[in-house]
Amino acid sequence: MQVYRALDRLMALGLVHRLESLNAYLACTRGDAHGADPVAFAICRSCGQVDELEAQTVRRVLRSAAASRSFEIEAAMLELTGLCRTCRGFDTVNGAPA
Ligand SMILES: [Zn+2]
Ligand SMILES: [Zn+2]
Question: Residue 55 needs a FRET pair 20 to 30 A away by CA distance; which of 6, 30, 76, 77 works?
Fold first, then answer.
């Protein structure tokens, strides 16, 4: 129970993110305590590498879309699935260099 409370606190501060699709927690890689700001994660389906992306444009779009409904966003998370640079460059399945 203590552990989950601590995680809740870290998540509220934006220091830890929860990835629903992986059912996993991830330490924030930005280190700027961005709170509940919307963030985007690029998740490699091959090696499992997770990259936290700058999502300022996405943030603006979501904020204005929500504002038009008088909705206040408390948390937003985008999980992008695909192949990372490394996995694309060494694609032995297709035998084709990226
Ligand atoms: Zn973060
Ligand atoms: Zn990969």
Answer: 6
Structure confidence by residue, pLDDT tens digits, 77-88: 789 999 999 999
**Domain coverage including residue 66:** 2-84
In one-letter notation, the amino acid at residue 25 is: Y
Q: Ligand 2 centre and the CA of 87: distance in Å? A: 4
Number of structural domains in the chain? 1
pLDDT digits (tens, 9 = 90+) for 15-64: 888 888 888 888 888 767 676 666 789 999 999 999 888 777 888 888 89
Contact 85, 46 (CB under 8 A): no
Nearest ligand, CA 43: 2
Distance 79 CA to ligand 2 centre (A): 15
Kindly calculate the radius of gyration of the chain based on its CA atoms and give it in whole angstroms: 16
CA of 79 to the centre of ligand 1 (A): 13
Assess if residue 53 is contained within a domain. yes
List the structure tokens of 63: 């904020």
Instruction: Write the CATH number for 11.
Output: 3.30.1490.190
